């Protein structure tokens, strides 16, 4: 397969597979709210898809969907005159309306939105009022209640306009960046991803005419650009000019991706190139024949992949480290050894543990231990099963034989992988 065919198939593989179900849910929510707040029967009016789905940059597995629903202007004055927290009263009424349609579904009013939690995805409904500028006034229940302005329409227009200028490359690249952040475990949101892609194309027209055959050079340039960005608290969203918070340090992982892009460009043969692109973008990137045969062999050894068990939509950060012990004496942290390019001596005891996780609320942890190398094959010890955490947020192992092994940890919330990390174990 040519590199153009690989990237074309990659783009197609990112299409949202449950789009019909999502569309039906949007329409159903809109119909219920229109009946209760406007007295009309319509599954379209007063509703706007916003967020990644509204900008048409979402990919398969998207679990956090957004919509704005416009309430009658007179209601705003009523909520403002209420004693206590007006935004809280508004969210409560919207929640009660949606409970009529989904009485057995979890529906939560929180902060600025009402979340409707379906199987493996949820829709966040933003009740709002259209102002004279075409933007939305919405409530915020925090700190006693307040009213704020959000501007999704200018953001959608800015992305659409630049997408036309770049011949569709802006949205394709935004989708592929989402595959990278899901594979690499980069906890940044969809609007920030789209902002980065928008800014990259805005700085130069070099890749406006890019085709799938030139995407290797495009992504080498893009990841190099991302790796060089400064660490800062926020970026400015296109169109709206609103601040987009950045809570994750992504630069090191972008630099690693840029290095792998160059390795893929320099690699000889379709199989070698595709293998490296899959390391960057994950299992949505297609295999070639030789890789498919190797993958079939891997399947026979029982390796499991988290993507086959749950949708992956990384939104938070989780950090993994490992202590190494010899005869119950604590030696070095594995991350420190990796930085100094040391290998773990055979016989060391290993305690992998979560040192940081910013996933809010309840979630479950899962582990994967993968052995690799000739000795693992000889011993029939490749492993690779995914198992639940036992409540200690840690996993103990022994460095039994040489190889380039690794351990991964996953945080699963509401049936979706929302954070992941991986640590290599060179023995």
List its traits:
single chain; 427 residues; alpha+beta; Beta Polymerase, domain 2; Immunoglobulin-like; 3 domains; seven-stranded mixed sheet; 15 helices
Give a nutshell description of this structure.
The chain is 40% helix and 26% strand.
How many distinct domains? 3
| Strand segment tally | 17
Please state the CA-atom Rg, rounded to the nearest Å. 24 Å
Terminal residue distance: 36 Å
Q: Which fold name corresponds to the CATH topology of the largest domain?
A: Beta Polymerase, domain 2
Low-confidence regions:
none
The averaged pLDDT comes out at 93
* CATH architecture assignment name of the largest domain: 2-Layer Sandwich
Using the coordinates above, name the CATH class of the largest domain.
Alpha Beta
Estimated structural class: alpha+beta
Biggest β-sheet description: 7 strands, mixed
Can you count the helices?
15
Shape descriptor: globular
Q: Provide the helix percentage.
A: 40-55%
Strand residue percentage: 25-35%
């Amino acid at each position: 397969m040519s590199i153009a065919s690989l990237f074309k198939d990659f783009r197609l593989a990112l299409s949202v597979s449950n789009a019909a179900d999502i569309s039906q849910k949007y329409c159903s929510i809109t119909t219920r709210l229109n009946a209760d707040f406007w007295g009309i029967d319509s599954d379209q009016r007063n509703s706007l898809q916003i967020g990644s789905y509204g900008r048409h940059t979402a990919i398969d597995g998207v679990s956090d969907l957004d919509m704005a629903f416009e309430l009658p202007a007179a209601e705003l004055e009523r909520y403002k005159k209420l004693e206590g927290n007006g935004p809280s009263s508004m969210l409560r009424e919207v929640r009660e309306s949606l409970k009529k349609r989904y009485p057995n579904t979890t529906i939560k009013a929180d902060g600025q939105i009402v979340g409707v939690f379906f199987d493996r995805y949820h829709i966040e409904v933003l009740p709002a009022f259209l102002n004279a500028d075409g933007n939305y006034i919405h409530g915020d229940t925090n700190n006693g209640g307040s009213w704020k302005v959000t501007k999704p329409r200018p953001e959608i227009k800015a992305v659409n306009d630049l997408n036309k200028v770049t011949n569709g490359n802006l949205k394709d690249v935004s989708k592929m960046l989402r595959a990278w952040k899901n594979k690499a475990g980069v906890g940044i949101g969809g609007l920030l991803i789209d902002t980065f892609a928008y800014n990259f194309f805005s700085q130069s027209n070099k890749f406006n005419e890019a085709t799938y055959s030139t995407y290797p050079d495009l992504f080498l340039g893009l990841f190099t650009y991302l790796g060089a960005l400064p660490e800062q608290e926020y970026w400015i969203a296109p169109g709206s000019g609103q601040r987009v918070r950045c809570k994750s340090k992504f630069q090191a992982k972008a630099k690693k991706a840029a290095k792998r892009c160059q390795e893929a460009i320099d690699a000889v043969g379709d199989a070698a190139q595709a293998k490296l692109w899959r390391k960057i973008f994950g299992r949505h990137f297609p295999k070639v024949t030789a890789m498919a045969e190797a993958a079939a062999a891997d399947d026979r050894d029982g390796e499991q992949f988290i993507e086959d068990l749950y949708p992956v939509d990384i939104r938070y950060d989780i950090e993994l480290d490992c202590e190494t012990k010899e005869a119950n004496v604590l030696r070095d942290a594995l991350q420190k050894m990796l930085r100094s390019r040391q290998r773990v001596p055979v016989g060391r005891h290993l305690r992998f543990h979560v040192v940081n996780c910013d996933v809010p609320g309840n979630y479950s942890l899962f582990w994967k231990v993968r052995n690799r190398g000739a000795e693992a094959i000889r011993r029939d010890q490749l492993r690779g099963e995914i198992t639940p955490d036992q409540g200690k947020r840690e996993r103990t192992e022994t460095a039994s034989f040489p190889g380039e092994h690794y351990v991964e940890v996953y945080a699963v919330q509401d049936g979706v992988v929302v954070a992941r990390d991986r640590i290599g174990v060179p023995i």
